[in-house]
Amino acid sequence: MPRPPSQRLVHPNVSQGCQGGCATCSDYNGCLSCKPRLFFVLERIGMKQIGVCLSSCPSGYYGTRYPDINKCTKCKADCDTCFNKNFCTKCKSGFYLHLGKCLDSCPEGLEANNHTMECVSIVHCEASEWSPWSPCTKKGKTCGFKRGTETRVREIIQHPSAKGNLCPPTSETRKCTVQRKKCQKGERGKKGRERKRKKLNKEESKDAIPDNKGLEPSRETPEQRENKDKQQQKKRKLQDKPQKSVSVSTVH
């Protein structure tokens, strides 16, 4: 005799009161189908897989919506996160991302960026235009010489990547020739100031030594010359007196 509907047994693999967004479920396999707009994904727990319903797919899965089910599918083995089965957005360790693919080495013309783990274009160094040549100088001076050097510089506006061309020199020096000109006061270099100091010291030492050769007449004052003449006259008179006395005694 058949049992009345109220006494019919529910299939042991299907539960009536599902939790967590499941539309249908079983005690052993978890969710079997999901409520609208939720994604169905199988999670491995030990040796068995449990169905789970989520609002979005977890990392390492991509979601696909079908008329009867929204399903999460696992990304490829070398892919950590993906948009779909053919387009990876992040690769697992040891692989480099390029155009949605995970590669163990980058194609020719590209280089690996170990920070982002992506294949990127090679960047070469770029430098600005040269500046005008500096004034011709020698040991920091712009005067007192004929041959010196002049310099020009430029800036690095783009540093190279690991495989890019190295940067060129940022300064350049060449020899130059100018018309010699005397240094104005305050423009002398260190050696020029040293020579001037030695010259002044030499002149001071020369002035300090007395000149015993006599003074030039032009340096004597009129009073000095007059006194000198008077002294010479007195000296001559003293020399003449003895001669006269001798001559008188002879006459007697």
TrEMBL record:
Pfam families, A to Z: Furin-like_2, TSP1_spondin
GO molecular function, one term: heparin binding
Subcellular location: Secreted
Family annotation (InterPro entries): Furin_repeat, Growth_fac_rcpt_cys_sf, R-spondin, Rspo_Fu-CRD_dom, TSP1_rpt, TSP1_rpt_sf, TSP1_spondin_dom
Chain ranges of the R-spondin Fu-CRD domain: 20-119
SUPFAM superfamilies: Growth factor receptor domain, TSP-1 type 1 repeat
Keywords recorded for this protein, A-Z: Disulfide bond, Glycoprotein, Heparin-binding, Repeat, Secreted, Sensory transduction, Signal, Wnt signaling pathway
Region (Disordered): 178-252
One GO term describing the cellular component: extracellular region
Biased composition (Basic and acidic residues): 201-232
Entry superkingdom: Eukaryota
Biased composition (Basic residues): 190-200
GO biological process, one term: positive regulation of non-canonical Wnt signaling pathway
Signal peptide feature range: none
Spondin-like TSP1 domain mapped to chain residues: 125-180
Purpose of the protein: Activator of the canonical Wnt signaling pathway by acting as a ligand for LGR4-6 receptors, which acts as a key regulator of angiogenesis. Upon binding to LGR4-6 (LGR4, LGR5 or LGR6), LGR4-6 associate with phosphorylated LRP6 and frizzled receptors that are activated by extracellular Wnt receptors, triggering the canonical Wnt signaling pathway to increase expression of target genes. Also regulates the canonical Wnt/beta-catenin-dependent pathway and non-canonical Wnt signaling by acting as an inhibitor of ZNRF3, an important regulator of the Wnt signaling pathway.
Family statement: Belongs to the R-spondin family.
Summary of subunit composition and partner proteins: Interacts with the extracellular domain of FZD8 and LRP6. It however does not form a ternary complex with FZD8 and LRP6. Interacts with WNT1. Binds heparin. Interacts with LGR4, LGR5 and LGR6.
Designated name of the protein: R-spondin-3
Biological source species: Equus caballus (Horse)
Gene name of the record: RSPO3
